[in-house]
Amino acid sequence: MTLYIFYFLSFLAVLSAFMVVYSKNPVHSVLYLIVTFFAIAGHYILLNAQFLAAVHVIVYAGAIMVLFLYVIMMLNLNQETEPHKSNYLKLAATVAGGIFMIVLIGSLKGVEKIENLNAANQSAGLIKNLGQVLYRDYMLPFEMASILFLAAMVGAVMLGKNELK
Amino acid sequence: MLTNRSKVVVNKKMTFMERIYLPAIIGGLITTMKHFFRKKTTIDYPKEKREISENYRGQHVLKVDEKGAERCTACGLCAVSCPAEAITMTAGERTKGEENMYREEKYAAVYEINMLRCIFCGLCEEACPKEAIFLTDRLVPVSGNRDEMIFGKDKLTEKHFNQVDISKRQTPEVLAFKQQKQYQHNK
Amino acid sequence: MVSGYIIYKAIMVVLIFLIGLGIAAYSTYAERKVAAFLQDRLGPNKAGPYGLLQPIADGVKMFMKEEIIPDVSNKFLFILGPCIAMLTACMTGVVIPWSTPITIDGVSYPLQITDINIGILYVFGVVSIGVYGIMIGGWASNNKFSLLGALRASAQMISYEIAMGLSIIALVMMTGTISLGEIAAQQAGGNWNIIYQPLGFLIFITCAFAECNRTPFDLPECETELVGGYHTEYSSMKLGFYLFAEYVNMFISSAIISTLYFGGYNMPFIGRFVTDPNMLSILGVVFLFGKIFFFIFFFMWIRWTIPRFRYDQLMHLGWKIFIPLSILNIILTGAGILFFNR
């Protein structure tokens, strides 16, 4: 049962991810991306990480993608006004994407070693355990991330201001 | 300034209590709640009818006398007095055998009031020397058609067996007033 | 046993779905009646005694109307919009605890469809998806007014979701759980959360008004500026779905407000008069619905009292007042917990 759901969700995620890239209409791309996020949230639930799934839906599908959609709806994007990208940019994008893929493969190579860490633990993804892990074992990275967010927020406010004094 | 209720607009700074708005919102809620329990002003029309004035001026009636003969003699005074020019008529001469239908020798063969033009002022009633036309407390029925709003004798003349009560408009005072020649409009 | 469990859950799901729709249908009637009474009128009273059959008449009217799909719009998305709005409105009801479990022949039947351990987050997740119904519908209509309504709706709902979430965090800090069933159970007796979280409640209910697109925050569909807002191009039952979803949302948010802050199915001192647990849980349903009806009435009461906000005022209120206030509320709650639980 779980296996079939996993296959279905994976298929859905990969298919809609392809459709994000291939659909001509940017609004359709965003909607496919939302479907992808939902499929990934389904994966989280299969991994017993309900909290992560809910937060994923709230933050990514519910907030960030709404803002994406908001901006795309305001812009009048169609094929005539699509900016032509120079070969320079295309090359840079290919290189950056390739490097990102190498990073991903490199990081996933080490996963096999910690495979059976919490597989049997049903409550690993519950909010209580997650909080304890975050605030006890990974306190420093967590606080660093929050400071990063604060810096980003301040930067956004500064950029959004009309005149700098 | 006439009512002493005018307020001068001032751009004063709002106090803290005013700025949190909550007292104002609660005040508004209390006001609307008072209206919730107030007596409703709606009149549920077909079931209940609005109370109308005693001398209400509604749809006209052409009176008949006690024998059932039409009182109107087609003198045209009502048409002349009508400020909206809503009344038209054609006179006809009474022939032998029609004495129980028309009171005088001359009668209105056609008598039409355009209810779309009529302003229900009651001047026709005041001008009539024969006590033939009166305004009643009946409402003029509505129609989706302009032609239907021109009322002929079929709709205006009352039936002998079903006379319309006009005692509220034809009081003794009114009769006495009508006797005085100097107040007559159309000499 | 397992099949009996599934049948019981299926009955519960259908029952709550029907009750939700029924209450939403009669909310339309109640809205018109309340509006009329607050304005010294009588309201609908022709269809049936006191106009009680009015929702059915309205429903028949909605179904009989001609269905118009604009030629230029994206047909699939145009239909998807109201579907999402209705779906998300109906989905939220499953986590609300209607009462304590009823025990028959030693088998306990919980009056809650599912008590998932992330109850509040589930509600938030579903609500945050709800905005897509409005956005997709507004965009697919290919109409300026619809698009403006959709943009307003999305900006408004995102802004107020933040303040809503922050006001809930203070509550979660106090209760120590995010399961709605446990939060309701903790408020047994007169121990309602409103006593400890008045500021949080104020923020939450205001944000709930904004999330439901109710006056004074009904800018996405304000008639004076945007014709019909995001549903300008909609007709027939698709329009009905949008309007209906608003009332279902109102019902659900009333239920959540009652559960989070007003004790849910609890009522103080009732334990002294009734001791039978089954009787208590049935009474609990009655109390919860009483609270829900009060809040639905409150939604309408506010609607006919306070005029609509201007859009910049709305954003100012959401970002510059409610978010700092709810952060302050979190700090105060944290200080209170430290001080009293030392």
General description of the model:
The complex is a heterotrimer of chains A (165), B (187) and C (342). Chain A has 6 helices and no strands. With 165 residues, chain A is mainly alpha-helical. Chain A has a domain at 1-79: NADH-ubiquinone/plastoquinone oxidoreductase chain 6, subunit NuoJ (Four Helix Bundle (Hemerythrin (Met), subunit A)), CATH 1.20.120. Helices cover 22% and strands 13% of the residues of chain B. The model of chain B has no long low-confidence stretch (mean pLDDT 83). Chain C has 342 residues and is mainly alpha-helical. Helices cover 69% and strands 3% of the residues of chain C. Chain C has helices at 2-38, 54-64, 75-91, 119-140, 144-175, 180-186, 193-196, 198-211, 223-226, 236-261, 270-273, 277-303, 311-340; strands spanning 99-104, 107-111. Chain C is globular. Classes of the chains: A mainly alpha (165), B alpha+beta (187), C mainly alpha (342). Chains A and C meet through helix 2 and helix 3 of A and helix 4 and helix 5 of C.
Strand content of chain A: under 5%
The secondary structure category of chain A is mainly alpha
> What's the arrangement of strands in the largest beta sheet of chain C?
1-2
CATH topology of the domain at 1-79 in chain A: Four Helix Bundle (Hemerythrin (Met), subunit A)
List the helices and strands of chain C in order: HHHEEHHHHHHHHHH
Task: Tell me the name of the CATH class of the domain at 1-79 in chain A.
Answer: Mainly Alpha
Helical proportion of chain A, percent range = over 70%
Structural class of chain C: mainly alpha
The average pLDDT value of chain C, as a whole number, equals 83
Fraction of residues in H or I helices of chain C? 55-70%
Topology:
The complex is a heterotrimer of chains A (165), B (187) and C (342).
Chain A: H1 2-22, H2 26-46, H3 50-74, H4 87-109, H5 127-137, H6 139-160
Chain B: H1 16-19, H2 22-37, E1 60-62, H3 77-81, E2 87-93, E3 106-114, H4 123-127, E4 133-135, E5 150-151, H5 153-156, H6 172-179
Antiparallel strand pairs in B: 1-4, 2-3, 3-5
Chain C: H1 2-38, H2 54-64, H3 75-91, E1 99-104, E2 107-111, H4 119-140, H5 144-175, H6 180-186, H7 193-196, H8 198-211, H9 223-226, H10 236-261, H11 270-273, H12 277-303, H13 311-340
Antiparallel strand pairs in C: 1-2
Helix pairs in contact in C: 1-10, 1-12, 2-10, 3-4, 3-10, 4-5, 5-8, 5-13, 8-10, 8-13, 10-12
